[in-house]
Structure formats: C-alpha cells, structure tokens
C-alpha cells in the first residue's frame, strides 16, 4: 500500500460528517483505525529495539560497594568456581576461630569491546529487520482497513439503491391494490384478485423493509471501521451510480503488495539471524580498566584493630588489561541453531511464493469479474426498458380486461427487480475495481478514479 498521506488534502473537502465521501472514509480508516494505531506503535517499539542493539557498542561500567562482618580463617587449596562459598584473601594463619572483623570495599570496572568480527552489527541488523517487518505490517493493516471502509461504503450505496427501487415497487403495488379494491367493491372483479393484490403489496413492503435493514447494517459496519456513530454517516452516491470508464492502467508489481513485502521482510529477518550466528564463533576481546579500594579489620600477622577497624576502604589498587574469551565448544550448538534458521528461511520463502501465487490469482479473478460486470451493466438498460414496457402493457391489458392480476403482479415484480439490478450492476463494476486495487495492494488509483467520477 502506498503512503496514505495522498488523501490528507481530502480532509478539507467535506465539513464534518454532513456527507461522507468514499475517499474520506478510506483515509479515516487508514489513519485512525485502532489496529493501524497499534501497528504504528509496534514500529516505534521496533525502532527502540534498534537503539537498544546499538548500545552494545558503548563501554560498560560496573560500580560496587560492600561492607561485611566475617571471620578470617583461611586455608590452602583450590576451590572450583561457584556462587555459594565466598573466598577469603590473605595468608593462611592456621586459625579456626569464630572471631569476626569488619571488611569493606569499593570499586569500578570499565570494559569495552573494541571489535567483534561483525557480531554487534549483525545484531543491529536483526533489530532493523524487526522494524522492517513492523513497517510492512502497518501497510498491510492500513490496506485492510481501507478495503473494509470502501467495501462497507459500497454496501451502503447498494442498499440505498435497493431501497429506492423497492419504494417505487411499493408505490406501484399500492396504486394497483387501490384500483383493484375499487373494482372488487363495484363487483367488476372477483374478490380473489383483491387478496392477490394485497399479498403483492405486502411482499413489496417486505422487500423495502429488508432494504432499509441492509442500509442500517451497512452504516453500522462502516461506523465500526471509522469509529463514529452510525447515525452520523451520510454517504455520497452520485459518482458511484455512473458506469466508470475503461481506463487502462499500469498493473502494480505483485511483489510490491504490502502482504508480499511483509513476507519478504520476514525472510530478511531470518537471514539476519543467520548472519549473526555466522559471527558468533569468534573470540571476544575486551579492554578492561579497574580501580578499587579495600579495608579490613585484621592484619597479615593476625592482629585485629579497634571496633570500627575495616569499615573504611583505605588500600587502593588499579589495573588495565585485555581479556580474551573463546567458547570453543559452542560450535555444535551454533551449527544446530544455523540449521534451524536455514529451515525457517526455506519455510518463509515458501510462504512468500504462496503469497505471490494467491495475489496473482486474486488479480486475475478480479479482472474476470470486472469484465463480466461491465457486460452485465451495459446490457441491463435494455432489460430495464423491456421490463418497463412489459409492465405498462400488462397494466393496459388488465384495465381492458384482457388478462388477470397474475400477469400484472409478475410484470411489476420483474420491473422492481430489474431496477435494483440496474443500479447494482454499476456498483458491481466499482466493487470489481476495488477488488483489483485490493489484490494489487494500492487503493490510490481506485480512490482517484472515484474522485474523477464526481
């Protein structure tokens, strides 16, 4: 989906919601639908993730302060690294006493990784891939919201045209019923015909009620997308009741469809993780500098100080150096993780191919639908003219006593249905154009065409 900012000038075209155009409905759905806002916040979160990944380039500084009260017994021998037994520094005094002294320490360690064989850059690339996926998902959500708004808008217009035709049918049925009631009262027609005419009138009124119901349901659907009260929606239908001209347009590349771009971004994210794994099996170099001070309440001779001795760190040290670490036996796990990512890449690539295949199929089906609806729309005026002539002839024959109410009722039903079909045929062309735009992933040409029709 292209940038929805192309619709911003339309905000100033219609004051309030006095009359909602299709262009405005699409724009508002694409900019204010809650799912769109949620997707935009996901982009912001992904951008913050990039900033987080970049902090790995910064030096690390750790500060420590400590005060303790402990015994001072020490022995020779090795103790493997662990987190339970605390080591004691100093000479072995050969004591095993419960006498305790104060100990204290403060210090700072600054470490920085000057180079990493591309690992940090690869991790930043993973974060950037996540942002690209979030951006692509915004476009997908905007497209879906715009399509939903346009489809609901067309549904309202179609329902309104059904109401117009149904209301005309009710009026014809009412006139016919009044005429027959008069004839029956004067015993010029059998009573059965009055019953039939009342049934036809009730049928026409039912059709009108169903049309009005469809209008209300359509308004509710559009209001759900726009986040406004249904009663505030009044659509503009004049431009959509015209048959749109055949405008040859350049077909958008399916690979530029938001769904395809989102899936492509998913593939790139997997590749970014693979690249990070490629940079993982290298030594880690760290420049380190430290300074610290310690205090103790006991001397090397075993003599202890006063009651507060050791609370103040008074012996200082500093040091700088390079630390190299290499996890030599990580290679099996790294290979396994790379294999996992390899198969994930194959899976995402297959999904990408499926997306392209589905989108191509949708475009071709929409084009076939458009061609068929155009032919129907061009043929319906002939059918409508014939239906009107048939209704007039049936009414004239009935008044002359040459036919029954059955023929007149049938002719009126056919006329009402043909009037509905005629209006809906043109709307079906607009709906087919919307389907093509949706399958191609760009609503801008469709919105522009609706604007030109006005």
Please summarize what this structure is.
With 454 residues, this protein is of the alpha+beta class. The chain is 60% helix and 11% strand. It has a four-stranded antiparallel beta sheet, with no helix packed on it.
Name a few traits of the molecule:
alpha+beta; disordered N terminus; Outer membrane efflux proteins (OEP); 4-stranded antiparallel beta sheet; elongated; 8 helices; 60% helix; 4 strands; 454 residues
| End-to-end distance | 24 Å
Counting helices, strands and paired strands, the structural category is alpha+beta
Q: Rg to the nearest angstrom?
A: 40 Å
Q: Briefly note the CATH topology name.
A: Outer membrane efflux proteins (OEP)
What is the CATH class designation? Answer: Mainly Alpha
Mean pLDDT: 87
What is the string of SSEs from the N terminus onward? Answer: HHEEHHHEEHHH
Strands, count: 4
Question: For the report, how would you describe the main beta sheet?
Answer: 4 strands, antiparallel
Low-pLDDT segments: 1-17
CATH architecture annotation name: Up-down Bundle
How many domains in all?
1
How much strand? 5-15%
- Work out the helix count: 8
Helix content: 55-70%
Shape: elongated
- Adjacency order of strands in the biggest sheet: 1-2-3-4
């Amino acid at each position: 989906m292209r940038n929805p900012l192309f619709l911003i000038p339309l905000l100033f075209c219609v004051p309030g919601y006095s009359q909602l155009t299709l262009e405005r409905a699409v724009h508002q759905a694409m900019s204010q639908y809650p799912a769109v806002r949620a997707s935009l916040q996901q982009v912001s979160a992904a951008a913050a993730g990039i900033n987080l990944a970049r902090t790995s380039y910064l030096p690390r500084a750790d500060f420590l302060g400590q005060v303790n009260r402990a015994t001072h017994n020490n022995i020779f021998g090795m103790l493997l690294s662990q987190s339970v037994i605390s080591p004691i520094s100093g000479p072995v005094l050969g004591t095993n006493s419960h006498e305790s002294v104060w100990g204290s320490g403060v210090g700072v360690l600054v470490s920085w990784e000057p180079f990493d064989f591309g690992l940090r850059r690869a991790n930043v690339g993973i974060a950037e891939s996540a942002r690209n996926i979030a951006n692509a998902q915004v476009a997908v959500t905007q497209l879906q919201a715009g399509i939903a708004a346009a489809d609901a808008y067309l549904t309202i217009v179609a329902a309104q045209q059904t109401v117009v035709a149904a209301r005309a049918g009710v009026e014809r049925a009412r006139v016919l019923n009044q005429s027959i009631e008069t004839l029956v009262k004067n015993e010029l027609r059998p009573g059965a015909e009055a019953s039939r005419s009342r049934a036809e009138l009730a049928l026409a009124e039912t059709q009108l009620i169903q049309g009005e119901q469809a209008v209300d349901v359509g308004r509710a659907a559009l209001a759900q997308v726009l986040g406004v009260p249904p009663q505030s929606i009044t659509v503009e239908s004049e431009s959509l009741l015209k048959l749109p001209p055949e405008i040859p347009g350049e077909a958008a590349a399916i690979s530029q469809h938001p769904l395809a771009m989102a899936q492509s971004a998913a593939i790139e994210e997997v590749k970014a993780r693979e690249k990070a794994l490629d940079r993982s099996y290298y030594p880690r170099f760290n420049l380190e500098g430290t300074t610290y001070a310690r205090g103790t309440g006991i001397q090397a001779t075993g003599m202890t100080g006063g009651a507060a001795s050791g609370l103040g760190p008074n012996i200082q040290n500093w040091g700088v150096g390079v630390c190299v670490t290499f996890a030599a036996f990580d290679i099996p796990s790294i290979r396994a993780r790379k294999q996992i990512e390899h198969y994930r890449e194959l899976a995402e690539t297959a999904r990408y191919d499926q997306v392209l295949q589905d989108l191509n199929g949708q475009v071709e089906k929409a084009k076939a639908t458009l061609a068929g609806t155009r032919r129907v729309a061009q043929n319906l005026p002939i059918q409508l003219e014939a239906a009107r002539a048939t209704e007039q002839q049936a009414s004239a024959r009935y008044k002359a006593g040459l036919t029954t109410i059955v023929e007149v009722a049938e002719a009126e039903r056919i006329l009402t249905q043909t009037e509905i079909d005629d209006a809906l045929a043109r709307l079906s062309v607009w709906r087919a154009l919307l389907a093509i735009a949706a399958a191609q992933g760009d609503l801008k040409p469709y919105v522009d065409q609706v604007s030109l029709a006005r």
